[in-house]
Amino acid sequence: MTTRRTPLAVLALTAALVSSPLSGQERSLFSLLDAGGRSLPADGTVTNGSLTPDDFVSGDGSRVQAWQLELAAGAPVQIDLRSEDFDALLHVLGPGLDGGLRDDDGGGDLDSRICFVPADAGTYTVVAGSLNGGDGAFTLVAGPPEGGACPPGSGGMDMDPGSLEMGWELDEIVPDGPLALPGDVRFRFSGGEPRTEGRPLRAWTIRGSAGDRIALTHVAPDEDTYLYLIGPGLPEPLRDDDGAGDLNARLCVELPENGEYVVLAGPFSDPTPGTEYVLEARKGAEADAVCRSYASSPARTVERILAFDTGGRVLRVGEEVRGTLDGIQLHPETGGPIQVWRLDGEPGARVFVDVVSESFDPTLRVVWAGLDAELYNDDAGDGCNSRLEFVLPAEGPVLVLPGAWSDEGSGPFTLRASVDPGPLEVGGCGSGADLEGFVGAENAAWEMVGRLGEPSESLAAGNETLAELDATAPVIQGIRARSWRLEVEGPGALVVEAVSDDFDPVLYVTGP
CA–CA distance from 426 to each of 110, 166, 358, 359, 495 (Å)? Predict the structure, then answer.
């Protein structure tokens, strides 16, 4: 059972609660869920439910269950998911919600809430889930919001971009003009630019055709740069921080459709006054010279993977096989090592696929024709091994891709598919060298701590510290943050917790 605790930190800031769009992977997985006859009234009736070990576990480890909800167009609806047994996670898909909606703690404490105005009448799918794979009882309520209208920004629709701490929506930022392909532009920040995720941004447009390979590079002396790309065929923004190395940003993109795209460039956090930034665009062979792989739309990535050669490798449901990750095959978007296997089984069967290794931190991807995005899992269970659960489609082929979290990951692994698996093996985090690659590839914690500077405060193991996040704390990576030093004596297990009743806390830990 999830325990409600006294807050360790308080954020002295009022902000709208915003339901974010679903990722491509979430849309793909949730479109496969069967509501099993479960329906949710739209009149405010409290409906009791229960998440059990028989419910699906998504790629991010959340346990999920689908319900159907009939809605009329134009009438605001508020959906609440509440539980005393787990941290609630709520999703809504349906007509007119191209990106779907997702909320974690919008209902207060660990409960979820989504409020929106349906643009179309029809059947919507409400997905009740637990953030960490927990199970237990819950209640679902769907009905008119209090006062008859949704609060601004509560459903991710009709929100005022300037009212949110995260700042402007990317598609609200007006481009300065076109950026030639090839070409470059030099610019500075005046201090009055619109901000997103805590960083100021300037934007330019580029025109291209489906299949064009483009490299966008953003550099500035002694500055950490950042890039976004939005446009046709990209349901979610593409983004990069340090893709060009030395804190410089680079996006390598294969355009999914013809049309006009918008590239947005800015510093990682606040710019140094007077700094000159350079945004460079290259195409074709010039892009190939600096790009190892190319991002695209999630659906286009699925198509590219389906064209891969399995080399005769086959995994049958009920079997366990062994392979060796050798770095010969690379993921078309991330450039990381993968190996492609065909999965054979009975259509409609609910299948669990595991990849286990003691040589590297394994990842797992699954694709088949028609998916909006590849299914993906990094760590499942109590270690670094990976598991995906899904229903085999009516038509194949289904491709299973074991891989490594680190670009340097390699070595033997075990791959298996079953309909009734036991617990996933603990461990699987690989060698020390692979863990160094893990930290280097993510780099988020090190960047966060580096930007905050040397901590001036200390924590003591076994003690609680009451702290406050206020407007004086810097915003880094779109997150308002403070840091502490923690001294430990030798190896051993250590738990660090940040608990707040006022905001959703995030923790970063770095050290030896």
Answer: 28, 37, 10, 14, 18
pTM of the model: 0.60
d(Cα 342, Cα 365) in Å, to the nearest integer? 12
Give the pLDDT confidence of 108-151 residue by residue, as tens digits: 888 999 999 998 999 999 999 997 778 899 999 999 998 888 87
Dihedrals phi, psi of 278, to nearest 5 degrees: -125, 125
DSSP conformation class of 19: P
The number of angstroms, rounded, from the C-alpha of 140 to the middle of its chain's C-alpha atoms is 25
Q: For helices 444-452 and 432-442, what crossing angle results, to 10°?
A: 60
pLDDT of 253-300, one tens digit each? 999 999 999 999 999 878 888 999 999 999 999 999 999 889 998 888
Buried (b) or exposed (e) across 233-254, using 16+ Cβ within 10 A?
Answer: bbbebbbbbbbbeebbbbbbbb
Q: Which two tokens stand for residue 159?
A: 């929100």
List of E strands, 74-223: 77-82, 88-94, 97-103, 112-116, 122-130, 136-143, 183-187, 195-196, 199-200, 202-208, 213-219
Q: Collapsing DSSP states into helix, strand and coil, what is residue 328?
A: coil
Question: Which pLDDT score, from 0 to 100, does residue 383 have?
Answer: 77
pLDDT value of position 177 = 94
303: three-class secondary structure by DSSP? helix
